[in-house]
Structures are given as C-alpha cells and as structure tokens.
Amino acid sequence: MRLRYKRIFLGLLALVLLLLALIVGALMYVTTTTGGLQQLVSVSQRWLPGELQIKSIEGTLHDSLTLQGVSFRNDEGLDISLQRLQLVWEPMALFDGTLHLRTLVLEHPVIILPPAEEQPVPTAPLFPLSLPDVSLPIQIKIDDLQLDQLAFQQLLANPAPAPVSEPEAQPVPVLIEYLVLQAHTEQQTLILDQLEVVAPQGQVKLSGSLLPSEQYPFKLSTEWQVIVPDAPALNGQGTLVGNIAALEITQQLSGFVDMGVSASMALIADTLKLNKLQVTQPSKKSEILLSGKVSGLQTTPLVALDGQWENLGYPLEGDAVYRSEQGNIKLTGSLDDYQLVLNSAIDGADIPVGQWTLNGGGNRSGFTAFELTGRTLEGALEAKGKVTWLPELSWQVALTGQKINPGSEWTDWPAKLDFQLRSSGLLSAQKPLQVQADLVSLSGTLRSEPVKGEASVALNGTELDIRQITLDVASAQLQASGRVGQKMDLDWALNAPTLEKLLPNALGSLTGKGTLRGPQDKLHLVARLQGQGLKFDANQIDDLDADLDIDLSGQQNSRWVLQANNLNLAEQRWKKLTLDGQGTPLQHQTALTLEQGPANLKLSLQGRWEASQWRGSLTRADLQNEMLGSWQLAQPVAIQGSSALASVKDFCWQRQPSGTGELCVDGGWSVAKGSQAELKIRQLALSLLEPFMPAGTQLDGQLLGQASFVQQPGKRPVFSATTRLVKSQVRLESEDLNIIGGDIQFNVSGRQEQIKANLQLPLLQPVGLLHADVLIDDAYQQGILKGDTRLDLSELKFISLFSPQLQAITGKLESALTLTGSIEKPMVRGSLQLVGASAELPALGVKLDVIELEIHDQPGSDNLLLSGALHSGKGALQLSGLLDPLNYSGTLNIAGERFQVMATDEISAWISPALDISVTPELIRLRGEIKIPEAKITPPKIAASATPLSSDVVILDPEGGGSDALLAPQQAMDASLRLTLGDKVEVDALGFKGRLQGSILIEDDGLRATRATGNMDVVAGEYRLYGQDLNIERGSLVFTGGPVDNPGLDLRVSRIVDDVTAGAKVSGTLNEPRLDLFSDPAMPESSLLSYLLFGRAPGAANTSTSEQELLFKAASALTMKGGNVIAEKLTDIFDVNELGLEGDSLNDTSFYIGKYLSPKLYVKYGVGLLEPTSTFLMRYRLSKRWSVESQTGTDSSGGDLIYTLEH
C-alpha cells in the first residue's frame, strides 16, 4: 500500500513538474520569440470585444518590441489606430517591485469615439469633493515616453444627412502634436521629472510632485506658451501649489503682454472662495485686485465678487487707446438674477476724461434695467433703459445730456449743450436691423452762438426714413426729410451766412438746396450751391456757384456747372476755375478750365456710360506754364473704364512749337490681365530745365526715352526703361563754363526676381566718365545687391553751377566703388579720391590750395574712412573721419594751425581749430575749440554825410525772420565749443581801436537759447567820441552762462584834462546797459560831459553853440536811457507809459507825459520848462498799416496820416 501511494505521489509530482515546464516553456515561447507573440495575438482575438489588427511584429516581450499598423474597432463605434508602437523595458526589474519602461513610443495615434451617451443626473452630492486613494503595488519608472501626432474626434449622436455630392472625408484634427514624459514614483508619490506637450494652440512644460491620496497635495512648476493670432505669442512661467481644497497660483507672463498673476483660492463644501486674484503690469503701474466667492455650486451658484483696479489701459502694450485711472466693480446674485455696480474713470485718445457709474440688474437674457451716468466734458450724461441679447438683440434707451462742452476736449468746439435722445431697436437672424432714434430736443450754445434742433429717423434694414432733421447752429440752418434706400426721396436745404461762427478755420457764407429722387440705378439729383468769401484753412475761394441737374435714368438732359473765382489752393492762385458739362449717360461732354495761375489748363472730355462702363475721349488737354511752355494733345485720347477694366490709348502731349518735345502714354488695367503701360519721350529739349538752374545757364540737347510695364494678376511685374541724352551741353558764360556730354544712357529692367540698371555718362568736355552697373537678385524678398561704379573727372569747374560761392575750381576726381549686401543693408567697397584740387572763395577773399580728399572702405566694417587736407595762406586743415552712409551718420575731426579764413579789405583772420563733429539723423554733436591767433578788423568808414532814416519810418521784422522757418534744421544740435582769442586780435572800427583777448565756452543743446561762459577783454585800446580819444581803462564782456547775445558789461573809459579826470562806467547787460558818469573832482553832469567830450570846461570862450546843443542832447539822452532812475520809477507810480524831457535846444525843452488809453488810442501832453508853451498829441490806429495823428500846440497845430510798411 505504501509503495502504491509513493508511486501515485511521484506520478502527480511528475505531472505538476511537467505542467510547470509546459507553462514556463509556453511563457518563454510567447515572450522570447516573435512567432510565439504572433500566435498569442491570434489566439486572443476570440476574447477581445472588437477587432484587433497588427500589420507587423518585430522583437519580443522579453526586451524590445515594435508593432506596425495597429488598429482596434468595435461595434459601438470605437476606432483606435496606431502607426507604430515601440516598447523597450526591463522585465527583470519586476522582481525588484519596479515597472521600468525605458522607451515607449506611440506614433500617429488616432482615436475616434462613438457618440456620447446621455449621462444620468447624479443623485449623490458632488460636494464636498473627494477623490479615491490610489495605492501603488509596485514602483514605476518611465525613462522616455513619446507620443507623436495624436488625433482625436467624437462622433455626433444625430449627424446631419450628407449632401448628394459629399466631398472627401476631412482628416481627424490633431489634438496633440508632440508629448514627452519622464516620471518615477517614490513610495506613493508621483514625481514628474518632465512632461512636455506641444499642440497647435501652444505648448506646456510641467515638473513637480503629486500624492494621489487623501487631499491629493501637489506642487508643480510650469512653463507654457499660447499662440495668439496676428500677435506675438503669450508666454508664462510659475508655480501651482495646493490640493483639491486649496490652490495657490503664481505666474509671470511675457510676449503678447508682460504682467504678473497671483491667485489664492479654497473650496469649502460647495463654496469656491477666491481669497485674492492680483494682476500687475509694472511697466504701466497697472494693478487689478479681485476677491469674493461662488456658493451653491451643487444647486444654484451665487456669485459675490468685488474688484478694483488702477492704471488700466488697452491695448495692454504700447500707447493706450482706452485708459482707466481707477475703478471698482461689484457683482452679486445668480445667472437668473444678478446685480452689477461699476464705477470707473475713463479716457482715451479720442475719449474725453469722464467719471462713469453703471448700475444694472438682469438675467441670462440681458439687462432688465440699467442706469449709466457720467460726468464728462464739464457736464453730465445719463442713459436709462434695458438691453436683451437672448433670444435676439433689442434695446430701449433714453439718453440725456446737460451742459456738455466739447470744447473742453476739442478746443475748436466750445459749447454748452443740453439734449434728450430716445432710441429703440431690434436685431435678429430672421429680421433686418430695426432702429428708431428721436432727438427730442437740442439746445444751448456753440462758440457763444445759439443752438437748437430736433430730429426723428427710423431704420428698417437698409431703408432709412428721415422723418425730420432740423438744426439751427450758429446762424446756420440745415433741414432734411425723406427716404434713403433702394428708392430715394430726399429734400435738403442749407443756409450758413457766417461760416466762421460754425466751423473753425473757416470764413464766408454758403447756401444750398437740393433733391435726390428715384431708384438707385436711376437717380435724379438737383442741387444749387452758392458761396462768397470762402476760406478753409489755407484754401480760399472768393466766389463759388454750382448748379447740378443730373438724371442718371437718361430720360432728360443733365447739366452741371461750377464756377469759382479767385482761388488759392495749396498756396497756388488762379483767377478762375470753370467746370461745364451736359448730356445724358449715353452721350455727354464736360470741360474744365483753370485760368491766370501757375499754369493755364483747358481739358475737354466726351463719352457715354453704357452697360456699367464709360467710354469716351479726351479731346483737349492744353497746358501753358511760364517755365514749361505750352503743351497740347497731338490727337484725341481714347479712354474707357469700369469696375473690371480701364485703359488710356494714344495719349500724346506735344510741346509747342512742335519738335521741342513729346510725351506719349498707353496703358490699361483689367481684372483678368492685370496692368500694362508704355511711355515714350521724344525730342524733349533740355532747355526746359533752365528756369531751375543758376541765372545765365544755357542748356542744349534732347532727352529720348521709352518705358514699358506689365504685371499679370498674382505675378511679379516685368518692366524696362531706356533714356538717352543726345547732344547735351551746359554753358555758363559768366563763369567761363562749358560742359559737353556724349551719348548719355540710362537703362533699367526687371523680370521675375531680378532687376538690372546701367548708367553710361561720358563727358567730352571736360573729359570724363561715369559708369555704373547694378544688379538686384531676389528683388522682392532678400534684395541681394551686386554692382560697381567708376567715376573719372579731369575738370571740376562745373561745381560752380551748384555752389556759386566756389569759383576757379581745379583738380581731378576719381572713384571706383563696388556694391554688395542687400537693399536693407547695402555695403560699399572701394575708394573716392580728390587730388590736385584748388578753389577760390571770392566773398571771403581766400584761395584754398592743395585740396586732397580720400574716402575708402574699412575692411570688416560697413563704414567708410575719410581723410584729407586743404591749405589757405600759410596754414592748413587736416580732416579725418568715419562715414556710415546707410544710417546717415558719421564723425569728422578737423584740426589745423593758422588757417586763413578771411582776407578781405575789411577783415583778415586766421584760425587754429580742433573740432570733433558727430552726426546722426537725430542729432549733430559738436565739441572742441577754435583759436583765433590773429585777426585784423577794419570795416570801411561810414560817410558823415550819410542820410539817416526818418524818425517816421518804423521797420518791423528787420531780419526777415519769416524765412528762417524754411531753413530750420531737422536735426537737434548739441554743441560745446570754446572760442579763444590770441594776442594779435586787433580791431579798428566804429571809433574803437585796440586789442582783444579772452576765451568763452559756447553751449547749445537745442532746448534753450545758446549760452556762453567766460570773458572777452580789451587788453589795450581807445575810443574816439566826437573827435576826442578816450582811454579804455577796463573793458570786458562777461558771459556767465546766460544767452550769448546778452553778455554782462564792465567798461570804464576816461580822459584827463589839466587836473580834471572825467569818465564813464558802463555796466548791466548788452540788452539793458547802464551808464554812470564820474569825475575827480566831482562836478555837475553838464560840466563832466564838457570835459569828457570836448576836453574843456563848460562856458569856455571857445565853446560853440553847436557844442552847447550837443551837450544838451547828450544830457537828455542820459535821462531817457536810464540815467535818471527817478523818471523810470514815476512811470510805474502814476501808471503812465512815457515820462521825460524832450526838445532840440535848451530853450524849447519840455516835460511830457504819455499814455495808451486803449490799444489803439495814445495821447501825450507836454509843457515847456523855460518857455510858456504846451502841446497835446493824439494818435489813433485805424488798421494794421494805417494810423492818424493830430497835434495841437501853443504856436501851431497839424495832423499826419501814417502808413506802416512791413518787409
């Protein structure tokens, strides 16, 4: 028995071992061989809830596996396909309790889900929110998981029937373009080493940790990007920290907008509490703060939010169009019953500053009631009503304005307006837009002129019913009524007798009335317009008369006449303009005439309008101009045009007399063929340019040329142009200048992506050549440049044509340059040299000798190096610098010693400069010093018999400052220049003879007046006054950083006669000098002046009557010019404009007081001091140029009519 059991046991053991061997063998067969895996897939089909297909299998489950063409479909509509799956893992790691995936690649997965089933309403409460605890039985480690081009789609439950001709099925949209995952677990915590997802809408990168149990705490670092259409992408990075009950968000945004976002929120039962949401934009000091809660998430959500902001603007970057300095908002209630309160200060580029308040309540369909109030434009606006947007948009609003002043924002429109406006409307998918608007009342003032009006209009789709428009503004009346739409029936009338009261920058009167009737394709317009003294900005018309009677139906003859007299348009003046036309659409003609202006022009057109196309001809185009001569058409020009094509054929303009020039153009455009044009120039005389050349210049020769242009729709243009100058010659007899050119040619052509240009400019006298070839490849994209130029001129006398101040120019100019780079960034290589040159400047009396100049490229740089020298007198200047012609900038250094800058009979001067100049498109910067080691200034003596201007002559704007604006530099100036006088600067002028020294620093920043610091001193000198030599003891112009044209004065002159010293001290500033006389011993001013001017005591035997008169005038002058301070103070005390002494001699001296009683009326009363006389003068200004003056006195009376001429 025991042996039997033993045999049974051994049999069972052998059977178990055999079964284990079979199982292990099967597993080994399946996992370690490709064939076994294929059989496993084949056998598993019977247990799968669908159809699984795999096109090919490579590898095994033991280490690496690759599946191609994987798909799975079931009867419910689920369809999953995968182009390739690759798996590399460590199966032995399972023995250590770890699932280790080295590589898992899923290529082009496509998931199509069946229609979603309607989910039953959950009976269990959603809140408080809880998630299941996940306990991982093993550890997980994923080294590299990649997913490429994931496409996803869910089918519709009830798709619409397909059309008969159904197009090809569209590809399933791509949801994720690329996904990479690297992760592992540590105990029960999931560690995201890297998760990167790239989608069409943007991309996101995550890293951090998550514990999938209890409150699911997590901590994530984020980096993401969102693609914004037609704008830079929006980038963000930050952190997410929290759990299912609380969340902290911190993000920094950049790209589309730069701002910071932080938020703190918590979920308590079914209430989401927003502790704080803060958005900041440091660049604009903007901030948004929001807090509140949403309760009742399980049942009916109720919102209670509060927010405030500062310095908001839109757009978020750049200059804001809309701005809100501060504001707050409060939102409470549910979607079916909410209340909104908003307060905000709003302004913008075209929005006036205002404080606005919105109170409203509503539901899902819209605002059931709202009230919007605003304090703006120095007044108040209030809007009340309701607005709905579901199921259709409709509104009923009443708008009221009180004391609105547009002039507070737009200064040309000062007003104070009150108005009431009512509006209602409806817009839906089934009905056209319907609007009813009634201006119940309008009243107030505009520019202190009364305003009133009322209007009522209704819009139904495209049909506008103008029931009434009546406006009376600043004496102008506008009335309109009727219908505007498919069928017109409109009447209007305008009467504006004083446009200056209505419009800024306008003058004159304008009246008109008219009607517009009929369907749009057969309109009949009748209008009459008249104007007198019209002026709009710089444009002016003295008289305007227009009559229009146009019947587009063609049932009756149309007529249009416009006549304007004394026109000033864009600073061009014409005596008369006439436009006259008549006819029907099938046959009409019109003529335009401009007379007695910069050019006289006469145009005549005739044609017909038929089948939406105009065909006709230009029968006359006469142009006559003093400089360009007379031009006429060679023959009528055929013209046609429509919305699909236009053409001009055989337009030839001939200069009269014939044979002196002709311009011909043919051209056309059509939607189908694009554009084409041809231009021909024949025998165009160069003498046409003589009016634009220096006086006395004679031009001979002719210009010939032709050009063509073709551009088909959607293609690059093809063009070519060739011009020739034949028998060209330039003569300027006054300068002994004669330039004879050879056959000068210029060619340019463009085809596909390439443009070529060539210039050949040979000179026969002087002998020379300018040759240039330029090629542009990829012209419309990169614009790659290739080219070279060569210049060789043996004579430079022609420069006098363009710089008349330079004469007798000699020298030779040579250049060889190559052009590379691109159009946006061209590069110049080569050199330009001026050698053996000289020139004269007759106005300065100097000759520039040995002028040398060289400009050449700098290897490895886009800049050009400049060097040169020029001599004058026995001195020279050295030039060096750097040029950047592409950016219009450069630097220049000028240094020299004793360079003679003037050598005339009046002035001889030498300079020794050391200057650094830099130039950019925005700024000219000057630094350095100019030393004047030697100068002699001796202007010609002024003849004593020269006749002075009458005292009646008043000169206004003596320097013609009006023209300075035309010469104003476009670049700002930043200058700091020191001017130093040497010890040989001598002046003998205007009675002064002596030597000057000193140094001043001149500064100019372009923002303030030019300033100076330093002294200019008289080292030794004398001043001759009335034949007497006065010794200059001390003389200085003191610059203390103020304006350079108003230095301080510190002068002391004196003379010694016997034992008497008499002199004068001058202080103050150049604009407000102060003269004080002194003597030793002290004496009256009359005695002091006698010693100072004549060298003897007053009353001496040899003192003449003329000298006594001179003394009297000198003493009076001292009083009038500030020597008598008491008189100056009295004018302020008694509020008078003038107070003082006047008279030609001692006996007729009088004391006078003058005052302006009004800006136009001036009176003056005088009384004799030594003689019993009195005078009364009255002057009244009639206009800008005319004034009348009357004077009544003891001895005589009279009057004058005074004319003031400005120049």
TrEMBL record:
* Any Gene Ontology CC annotation: plasma membrane
Location comes to: Membrane
Q: Which GO terms describe its biological process?
A: protein secretion
Please state the protein's primary subcellular location: membrane
Domain Translocation and assembly module TamB C-terminal, by residue range, is 872-1206
| UniProt membrane topology term | Single-pass membrane protein
Protein name stated in the entry: Autotransporter secretion inner membrane protein TamB
Organism classification: Bacteria, Pseudomonadati, Pseudomonadota, Gammaproteobacteria, Oceanospirillales
